[in-house]
Amino acid sequence: MKARSRSAAVQAGRGLPMPAALIAPESPALVLEPSERAPGRARRYLAERAREIGVADDYTARVVVTELVTNAYKHVGFGHIVVRVLPDGRDDLFVIEVWDEGEGRPVVRDEDQGATNGRGLLLVVQLVHDWGVRSLNEEGKVVWVRCAR
Predict the structure, then answer these.
(1) What span, in angstroms and rounded, lies between the C-alpha atoms of 18 and 139?
(2) Which of UniProt's keywords are assigned here (predicted)?
(3) What are the DSSP calls for 66-101, one per residue?
(4) CB crowding 101-133: b at 16 or more within 10 Å, else e
(5) What is the pLDDT of residues 24-57, one digit of tens each?
(6) At residue 82, what are phi and psi to the nearest 5 degrees?
């Protein structure tokens, strides 16, 4: 994967058009209760879907889905979490979506050497091709990322 500067990676999630794959209704979804078990279940689902759509190495995607699902259950803590893994229109990418019922938007924090948490999304934006957030018509949001196959 081509390295990007931190500011370029952070800016990647702002103002991007939604990838066409994100509206594909035929993709199977995983529905989770917000709990400590949710990230593990999301990793297993991702591994299965990654094999189905031809992803050779899913390690980075498992790190990413773990962080996004963990954020959904820790920062929202109610309602369902929905995870989808979809092929992208380009052969070299695929999409991970994590839906939750919270209204708060994810924030990429500046690195703080003294902090004991708050680095997860900063790591995610460095690992993915691009990312973004879109509001749902009802309550909640979808955080999406595009990863290299």
Answers:
(1) 18
(2) ATP-binding, Kinase, Nucleotide-binding, Serine/threonine-protein kinase, Transferase
(3) HHHHHHHHHHT-SS-EEEEEEE-SSTTEEEEEEEES
(4) bbeeebebeeeeeeeeeeebbbebbbbbbbbbe
(5) 557 789 999 999 999 999 999 999 999 999 998 9
(6) -115, 130
